Amino acid sequence: MSSSSTTEPRLAFTSLCIWPAYGALPSFDPECLGVLAHFAFSRLNVPIKTNLGRLKFYKERLPLLLSDNDNIHLAAGYEAIVDHCKRSHIDIDEKFQANIADLLALNALVKSTFVPAVLDTFWLDDTYRSSIINIYARSLGGFPLAFFYGKQKTESIKNQFNIIYGDKNFDQTRKSIFEKGKKVLDHLTDVLGTKPFLFGASPTSIDAFVFGYLAPLIHGPASNSALARYASSRKNLCDFVNRILTVYLGDLAKDNDTTDSVSTTIPTTSNEDRLRDKVAVIAVGILTMCAYAYLSGLIRIEINQVE
Predict the structure, then answer these.
(1) Longest dimension (CA), the chain
(2) Distance of alpha carbon 262 from alpha carbon 27, whole angstroms
């Protein structure tokens, strides 16, 4: 993400930590993709780091913006990083103030209806959840961190959905989330039309946000899901994603393809992943029961020394 221009804006002494690439994507994570697109639209020249340690991948929220030799956390997550850019007087929406109400309304619609549909596909659908976890597992170093990360992520999204939609009929809730996600895709198709971006010839923050969730849906391991097939059937949305990948993030994707941290294949099949999960749960259960039995005195271990 570099340029020969001497007038490009900068965030002083910073680096951006992201989840690594997947295939043609410079990162497989939606928020990381959104930040990368936002930085590219802003012509920000920020060093990108994907060679993090396993525990840092597990503990930190990525994308993560760092300062002062990577010792100070400036912002974590898409929204916080975009807000940090605006506070630093780097705002790609500044010239769209006349349409700011429409921009904010579209952003709220995508966030409240399309994002949950993507998260449901990635983390609550058993068919694709294993593949998603396997991608994250590359950076986490595999079992056991990937196992715990996947469980935590799934439970977090379930709890979030229960709070928002209620938990009386969770299957029906998921169907409703999917249908609303399709309607947003229809709306995005109409809004985009034949324009390069949602609000005309120049990109905005909502373009970066939408791209972040559309790109891994269309080009990720869940590309055969019902939601991904529906998105791929909208030619202008596919062209929108591919245009950003090629024009704005093409060099970054190529650079990432040469690093050791990049994963372009799924390490294990979904059946293998489910079997590993079952073995891990059984092993933890057996160890827990043995520890309880020993501590409660149900079993004792005696060592007799034979002379």
Answers:
(1) 92
(2) 9
Confirm or reject CATH 3.20.20.70 for domain 14-257, answering yes or no.
no
Q: Are 184 and 113 in contact (CB under 8 A)?
A: yes
Q: Measure CA 173 to chain center.
A: 22
Task: Tell me how far apart the alpha carbons of residues 67 and 13 are, in angstroms, rounded to a whole number.
Answer: 5
**CB distance 38 to 205 below 8 Å:** yes
Tokens of 78: 């898409």
Question: Is there a contact between 227 and 217 (Cβ–Cβ < 8 Å)?
Answer: yes
Element spanning 134, H or E = helix 126-140
For residue range 10-62, what is the model confidence (pLDDT) as tens digits? 676 679 999 999 999 999 999 999 999 999 999 988 899 998 888 889 899 99
Q: DSSP string spanning 139-174?
A: HHTSTTHHHHHHHHHHHHHHHHHHHHH-SS-HHHHH
Phi/psi at 306 (nearest 5 deg)? -95, 125
Encoded tokens for 110 = 């995508």
Contact indicator for 248, 240 with CB cutoff of 8 Å: no
Domain range summary for the chain, segments of one domain joined by +? 14-257, 269-301
Query: 236 vs 99, 190, 252, CA distance in Å?
Result: 22, 9, 23
> CA-CA distance, 83 to 99, in Å (whole number)?
19
What is the C-alpha separation between 78 and 72, in angstroms, rounded?
17
